């Protein structure tokens, strides 16, 4: 990198963990020397570190940063003017009566050089001022017509991608002006382990099954209280996520109450409890909670649009959609904490946890481990692991022959082989608390036989076993003969 490049793209501060890609995208955008005002949109679920990252960018580039808050328009304009006066070192802050005046002044900061102008929590400003996106659109149109030299780099941040899309839709869509759309996502499971300082892969899975990869859950909601080792996990759960005195205990409820309206809230809780208990299809959820399929489908759509649920087609029955909870804390809440909240708040958390620990292992850790295995296949597996390029990994149901039970596949991997997309690369079983052996391989062989008989191309599909405990000697011998792919926790976190 040349000295000029180094100046144009500031080095990421040490206190910003990971986020190399996001930092490069943001600093490349705000430091772009070319003339013309540009617009960037930053979105992501709450508590992913958007504010932390944007504040660091503003500081490193001497840019303007404003944290929006839900308030009356006049109060917001007053606060914004105060921040603007401090930034420009003005003797007196301006007195803006309209958003038009404020936006024009902010963008004028880019008249002399590329300047980031960052407005965080932008959706909170749009509520009291619904015309604000149109005001910004009009300001850009004027800049592009009469001040083409301007190099303001406006970044609007806050909210989920779906919320940002709704805000910026319509005839004055800001999406058409945006040259950067950045989604700040949770840390993946390997990054999360490093962020929490966890070296034990088994402990890392357990912690990730509770808090996922959301950075603020460690820094803000448990005051950096991390388990000291595998022996400390149970105590850590009791003193954090099961302690009403700790903010993390209330976070799942707050998250759902922010995202679902009052009418949907009770049904949303019931739906999430059903999914956490293993019901993954709309029909199964409706039957479990005694609600109509129409009502359940509505709630599923709401939760999915808010990013709280993922919907995935069955690997072998594409018309069948399965739902899973996207936020691990919500899954933990509705499998473990929600059904026992009264006891948790009235009794010793350790006693409650001892009773529900088997539920955690079966209903939370086990399916979460399977999901991490699916993520490993597409994100971390070495290029030659599946003799193809994996693109998707989902659950699948194989209908057995007449008189035989169905076969459930935990990790069905499809990808591209020699230019052919959608090829079945592997079928796998994931077992969190079970030593896997040759009978698991026999299950996979039966599944492949049934799939082959139904017309699926299984010639290159590798049987795979994923275990949180380990593998028996016969299965290890089969691995040595090249008959099965084995993935243990060490390979999940450190191998390909």
UniProtKB/TrEMBL annotation:
InterPro entries: P-loop_NTPase, WH_DNA-bd_sf
Domain of life the protein comes from: Bacteria
Gene3D superfamilies: P-loop containing nucleotide triphosphate hydrolases
Cited PANTHER family: ATPASE (PTHR34704:SF1)
Record's protein name: GTP-binding protein
Lineage: Bacteria, Bacillati, Actinomycetota, Actinomycetes, Kitasatosporales
């Amino acid at each position: 990198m040349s000295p000029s490049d180094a100046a144009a793209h500031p080095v990421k501060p040490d206190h910003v963990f990971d986020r190399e890609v996001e930092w490069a995208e943001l600093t490349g955008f705000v430091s772009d020397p070319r003339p013309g005002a540009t617009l960037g949109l930053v979105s992501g679920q709450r508590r992913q570190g958007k504010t932390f990252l944007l504040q660091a960018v503003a500081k490193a580039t001497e840019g303007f940063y404003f944290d929006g808050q839900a308030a009356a328009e006049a109060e917001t304009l007053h606060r914004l003017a105060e921040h603007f006066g401090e930034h420009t070192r003005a003797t007196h802050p301006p007195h803006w009566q309209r958003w038009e005046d404020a936006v024009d002044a902010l963008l004028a900061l880019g008249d002399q050089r590329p300047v980031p102008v960052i407005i965080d929590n932008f959706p909170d400003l749009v509520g009291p001022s619904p015309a604000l996106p149109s005001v910004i659109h009009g300001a850009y149109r004027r800049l592009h017509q009469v001040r083409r030299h301007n190099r303001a780099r406006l970044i609007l941040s806050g909210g989920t991608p779906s919320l940002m899309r709704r805000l910026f839709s319509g005839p004055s869509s800001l999406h058409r002006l945006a040259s950067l759309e950045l989604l700040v996502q949770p840390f993946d499971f390997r990054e999360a382990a490093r962020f929490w300082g966890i070296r034990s892969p088994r402990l890392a899975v357990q912690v990730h099954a509770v808090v996922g990869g959301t950075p603020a859950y460690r820094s803000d909601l448990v005051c950096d209280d991390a388990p000291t080792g595998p022996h400390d996990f149970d105590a850590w759960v009791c003193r954090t996520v099961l302690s009403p005195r700790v903010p993390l205990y209330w976070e799942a409820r707050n998250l759902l109450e922010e995202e679902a309206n009052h009418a949907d809230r009770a049904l949303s809780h019931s739906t999430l409890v059903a999914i956490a208990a293993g019901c993954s299809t709309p029909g199964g959820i409706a039957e479990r909670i005694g609600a109509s399929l129409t009502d359940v489908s509505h709630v599923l759509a709401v939760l999915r649009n808010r990013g709280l649920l993922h919907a995935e087609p069955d690997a072998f029955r594409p018309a069948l959609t399965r739902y899973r909870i996207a936020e691990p804390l919500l899954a933990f809440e509705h499998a473990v904490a929600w059904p026992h909240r009264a006891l948790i708040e009235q009794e010793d958390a350790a006693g409650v946890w001892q009773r529900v620990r088997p539920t955690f292992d079966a209903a939370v850790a086990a399916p979460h481990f399977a999901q991490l295995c699916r993520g490993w296949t597409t994100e971390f597996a070495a290029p030659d692991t599946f003799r193809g390029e994996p693109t998707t990994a989902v659950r699948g149901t194989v209908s057995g022959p007449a008189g035989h039970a169905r076969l459930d596949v935990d990790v069905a991997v499809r990808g591209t082989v020699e230019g052919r997309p959608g090829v079945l690369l592997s079928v796998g079983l994931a077992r969190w608390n079970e030593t896997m052996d040759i009978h698991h391989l026999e299950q996979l062989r039966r599944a492949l036989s049934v799939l082959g008989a139904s017309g699926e191309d299984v010639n290159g599909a590798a049987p795979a076993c994923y275990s949180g405990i380990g593998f028996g000697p016969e299965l290890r011998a089969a691995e040595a003969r090249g008959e099965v792919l084995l993935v243990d926790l060490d390979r999940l976190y450190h191998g390909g």
